[in-house]
Write a structure and sequence with these properties.
The protein has about 260 residues and is of the alpha+beta class. The protein contains ten helices and ten strands. About 35% of the residues lie in helices and about 15% in strands. The protein has a two-stranded antiparallel ribbon. It has a two-stranded antiparallel ribbon with strand order 3-8. A two-stranded antiparallel sheet has the order 4-7. A hairpin with a 4-residue loop joins strand 5 and strand 6. The longest helix is centred in the N-terminal third of the chain and has 20 residues. The radius of gyration is 19 Å and the shape is globular. GO terms for molecular function: ATP binding; protein serine/threonine kinase activity; protein serine/threonine/tyrosine kinase activity; protein tyrosine kinase activity.
Length: about 260
């Protein structure tokens, strides 16, 4: 925040002038995913920024590619002969986290439902209460989207969303101690109540696959990224990776010195 002023009862705030969001750049680039190096740099900054929030007892609650903006979205252009299209490569992956309209302090009232659908953690869907780990889940979804160019959980329905999670991450809900009075309508005898033979079941089978099958390369850094994402997409919030530990992850280790310098 640079400054603020009151304009006829309206609070106006002056911020740094930023460029395209990471989502808008992706969209304007025909959803061509970011390179593994670009994902690494953006991921490190994102983890660092949100760790700062969590250290100060704040949960952002609405992390998504639209709310992560490039400082500059200047790009170079190249022509992909094989795909017969022009492709953009952003020159600098320096980013800022924005939109704190839903940010909530630990001591404040917590709305039942938070986060934009595709980045919503299971504890939020099931109304089991939420805290800092729901941001970590959102970051895991965002990193997948940067790497592949499309949304991990493309749905608008709670039950289908949970089914997608089981298809991609495994049927681990049966191990999670649910509150007996909340959202049991989604479960029967401790298992997700989901009809595999329905049209929705077919959609999930055809459009979702186990997480590691989305890898674009068998190179070590690609596997390290997916190890990081898996740690962020842990069902149980108490077992989910905390951001202080995420910054020590091997995915960042080889480039940590460079990352620290470029994040200053």
């Amino acid at each position: 925040m640079f400054d603020w002023f009151d304009y006829h009862g309206h609070m106006c705030i002056s911020f740094e002038l930023l460029a395209l969001s990471t989502f808008d750049f992706l969209k304007e680039n025909n959803y061509l995913p970011y390179s593994i190096g670009q994902v690494r740099h953006m991921a490190y900054q994102l983890c660092l920024a949100v760790k700062f929030l969590h250290d100060n007892k704040l949960t952002h609650t609405d992390l998504k590619p639209e709310n992560i903006l490039f400082v500059s979205s200047d790009f170079t252009m190249s022509y992909n002969v094989e795909k017969k299209r022009e492709e953009r490569t952003v020159k600098s992956t320096a980013v800022r986290v924005v939109d704190f309209g839903s940010a909530t302090f630990d001591h404040e009232h917590h709305s039942t439902i938070v986060s934009t659908r595709h980045y919503r953690a299971p504890e939020v869907i099931l109304e089991l209460g939420w805290s800092h780990p729901c941001d970590v889940w959102s970051i895991g979804c965002i990193l997948f989207e940067y790497y592949l160019g499309f949304t991990l959980f493309q749905t608008h329905d709670n039950r289908e969303h949970l089914a997608m999670m089981e298809r991609i991450l495994g049927p681990k809900f049966s191990d999670w101690p649910f509150h007996p009075l909340r959202k049991q309508k989604y479960f029967y005898h401790g298992r997700l109540d989901w009809d595999e033979g329905s049209s929705a079941g077919k959609y999930v089978r055809e459009n979702c696959k186990p997480l590691r099958r989305y890898l674009l390369s068998e190179a070590e850094d690609h596997h390290q990224l997916f190890d990081l994402i898996e740690s962020m997409l842990e069902y149980e919030p108490s077992k989910r990776l905390v951001l202080a530990d995420s910054l020590k992850h091997p995915f960042f280790e080889t480039a940590k010195k460079v990352l620290r310098e470029t994040c200053r």
